[in-house]
Amino acid sequence: MKTAKRILTWALAVALVLSLTGVFALAVEDDEPVKETRDDVTAITVSVRIEGQTENLFYNTAVRLVPVGEEPLTVLDLATILNESETAPDFTFKDSGYGPYITAIGDLEEGTNAEWDGWQFRVNGISPVVGISAYELADGDSVVFYYSDEFGMGFAFPEIDLTNIYNGNISFTTTVTTYDDEGTPSTAVVPVADAVVTIGDDTRTTDENGTIALNVFGGFRTLQIEKTDAETGIPLVLRLAPDYEIFVPFTDTEEGAWYDEAIQYNVKSGLFKGNQDGTFNPDGNMTLAELTQVLYRVADGVDVVGAEFWYTGALNWAVESGLFPEESFKPDVVVQRQQFIFLFNKTIEIVGERDIEARADLTEATDYDDISGSYLEAVEWAVASGLINGTSEETLTINPKGTITRAEVCKMLQNYYTAV
Q: What is the mean pLDDT of residues 150-163?
């Protein structure tokens, strides 16, 4: 349930601190820099990415504490600080009539392929009209250094169009600027054709409309796009961040369906997975084996590879933790709503991460008498904690003995984990 963050190494964090006029503590806890709160300093966090000709060279986050009243952090300052890092490639600079500029990053020097290729930079998706010594950075900025020809001729900054992804297509466009004889600029959106796109392990080439047909379905997939000049090898497209990903819908889910966001939430958090054929079976009734597997993941369990059954690891955990006795496990039995609530409540108690003492008054529920006595406290907790809201907006209806679908379980788990 935790999202990993890209954080600069301790060595670079120390270098950032030592670059100040004065000594400030910058603690690191769980691999994350902890910003010190002081009235006389401003913390500036900047995302940094360096894209070479064929691969990403660096991708991380820099934090600098700038004393109030001092000069702001420029792109040149950032590059200079990166030179003190053991993980970032070295920057080489040269002075010109317009100020210093980058001549090389690592071993990749300007003019490697042609006379005018070299290093450029963008901040927050925009190419500045000033140089690295003049552009002032602010907290939260995203800086990308990339290699292209000097004037960016024919270079694309791709925009991803996912409007037809449920129809199996993704498109890529870019905005180009042209100038008339009087130097007046005009812009147009054009497709990024003949670019190599990789989604997960599948590679495709965009057609003349900048479109690819999907060949993988179901779940979050990394997405990358590349294109180089066939003669010079100079990149013609700015690559995406190494961890850029999209949600590829399952073949049996509908766009805009009530469960769409809930399924994405559960897949992203690792609680649910789809089937190998790209389906999710949202309307399928939840079986005890499926539920046990999900609850095992709630408890941070890891799937057992090569076991006798796909649910072996989950079953072993359930029995050992006291969720239920092994003799009561019938993998294909369909779970009732109140049974799901009871087992989830017990899992939360086993995990021990959240309070399970909250209770709601269910006496006004339309089907209060249908709730089995052994499940009543769990159902009261479920309503109080936001896990369920009942099946009717006008009145509280639990439907305790009704079956529960995979999509409904996803929605309830999303309700619970996102409740304020």
A: 84
